[in-house]
Amino acid sequence: TTAPQTRKFEAEVAQVLHLVTHSLYSHKEIFLRELISNASDACDKLRFEALANPALTEGDAELRIDISFDAEARTLTLRDNGIGMSQDEVIENIGTIARSGTRKFLESLSGDARKDTQLIGQFGVGFYSAFIVADKVTLITRRAGNAPGEGVRWESDGSGEYTLEAIEAPRGSSVILHLKQDETEFLSAWKLRDLISKYSDHIAFPIRLPVQKDGKSTDEFETVNHAAALWTRPKSELKDEDYQGFYKSLSHDFNDAASWTHNRVEGSQSYTLLLYLPAKPPLDAMFNGRDERKGLKLYIRRVFIMDASEQLLPAYLRFMRGVVDSDDLPLNVSREILQDNRLVAQIRAACTKRSLDLLEKLANDDKEKFQAFIDNFGNVLKEGIAEDTANRERIAKLLRFASTASEGQARTVSLDDYIGRMTVGQEAIYYISADGYGAAKGSPQIEALRARNVEVLLMFDRIDEWMLGYLHEYAGKKLRNVAKGDLELDKLGDGGDKQAREEAEKAAEPVLAKLKELLSERVRDVRVSQRLTDSPSCLVLDEYDMASHMQRLMREAGH
Ligand code: ADP
Ligand code: MG
């Protein structure tokens, strides 16, 4: 063996470590959840690699996580016989911040401790959470397939440096926490059992604690969790806490999920879906654009294969989180195969349908939670109008808008609400689109409609104009932009006083002629308008002209 070498953490690691240990103290027991989750991931990875190379299990294929403690030495040890790490992997995974989002994450911290805790929680602090309760952490690990002498001993007090040493080690990883002076509570089988059932019961591998006798640990271990993948258990056996606990470890979210749907499908192919709707936007939604989506894990016969959000969910449902476990896909499936596979297409359609079912149910059963969904993800859902023709009507039914009949700019009005309030003779759904709420609401073009008690939907989100290009009709009613074409106001409400209007038009003729002459270069026509009640004039587009808001966007884009 060679002498231990000392290395420095990347600057960002030191920063994250400092933040984690200081801002997460009030949630300190999450370290156990994070380390168990890493051990479980390591077991998943070994099981997956062993599919192609069974020799990797070295005759020890019963994957498990053992947790033990030594009250006198004040150490807590988590040992897994999963994939382990080579020296390079330790340096890469533990000594640097490989995850691309980290820098942006650090930049997004506000300095407000409460908010930052939320952010860090959602970010998933992972391995470094050990330093919340430990003043020194030792990691002993060996990569499956490497020779027994190729183990690695890593150690750090979390202050900026770590040591590395080559040693003999069994396959897998042991994380030894040297607990801080005050953290005595974790040196108790009772406390550990309690935390495991609270946060890690759903872990699919056995988590074991030493059997206690006369208040002392024996050499024998007993399993303390269910050790079955949560989604494989019957719904009748699962409590809300079980689902929420699984959601939190799946998503690294501190908050409860808003809702979920759990289904077993058996037929021409069999699979299980467990899909969650988060209550708040997960942090990765801020980092990941549409190209790098995450959050839906594909399992095949209980073996974790890969994150397959892109293959299993359309982009407009990218806020959903969850698990799909297929009985029929081949274990050696690749991303390319997933992209173009009949079974996958069926599962994707089922995920879409179940997600829309969930949203419909939420809209009917829990107005408050549904409104939070609209506020957080409503604009993402709007993409579905363009993207998913087959479900366009269902998606449109879920959308909410501000309108001249609702309070402020909150999007609360559904198209069905609108139709329910349509006035005598009204055939279309009217909307105005503008750059902002104020511009929409104050637009002179809606005056005549307001005067006739006709509601107008106010569209002012960036995506609206694009969405409206695909949403021409809902429930048999045309959607009409009040800034375009002839509104046929005669038919609406009481129709107004036709004779008085004709007289007014006649009286205005000389003025119109003069205006047309003056503006001939700049407008196509000048007309007496029924649109206006208070404003003297407004610009109107022909029915098939691009909406003015869109014209402005095009100009900005250099067209
Ligand atoms: P994450 O789990 O989100 O990737 P962590 O900070 O928890 O982030 O872990 C960082 C990386 O360290 C993991 O991705 C994994 O590669 C490695 N790692 C951590 N714990 C273990 C373990 N028990 N066995 C093998 N690898 C591990
Ligand atoms: Mg982790």
Brief characterization of the structure:
Keywords: ATP-binding, Chaperone, Cytoplasm, Nucleotide-binding, Stress response. With 559 residues, this protein is an alpha+beta fold.
Architecture overview:
Residues 27-183 form the Histidine kinase/HSP90-like ATPase domain. One of its GO terms (molecular function) is ATP-dependent protein folding chaperone. It is found in: Cytoplasm. The chain is α+β, with helices and mostly antiparallel strands and 559 residues long. The chain contains 20 helices and 19 strands. Strands 1-6-5-4-7-3-2-8-9 form a nine-stranded mixed β-sheet. α12 (342-365) runs antiparallel to α13 (367-387) and α13 packs antiparallel against α14. The longest helix is centred in the middle third of the chain and has 24 residues, at 342-365. The radius of gyration is 31 Å and the shape is elongated. Mean pLDDT is 87; it is low at 285-291. Bound molecules: adenosine-5'-diphosphate and magnesium ion. Magnesium ion binds at residues 34, 37-38, 126.
Entry keywords:
single chain, 559 residues, alpha+beta, nine-stranded mixed beta sheet, 20 helices, 19 strands, 20% strand, elongated, binds adenosine-5'-diphosphate, binds magnesium ion, Hsp90_fam, unfolded protein binding, Chaperone protein HtpG
- How would the global form be characterised? elongated
Total strands? 19
Number of helices: 20
Catalogue the unreliable spans.
285-291
| Spatial strand sequence of the major β-sheet | 1-6-5-4-7-3-2-8-9
- Main beta sheet: 9 strands, mixed
> What's the pLDDT, averaged over the residues?
87
Distance between the termini: 67 Å
Tell me the structural class.
alpha+beta
β-strand amount: 15-25%
Q: How helical, in percent, are the residues? A: 25-40%
Q: Radius of gyration, Cα only, in angstroms?
A: 31 Å
Query: Which small-molecule species are bound to the chains here?
Result: adenosine-5'-diphosphate, magnesium ion
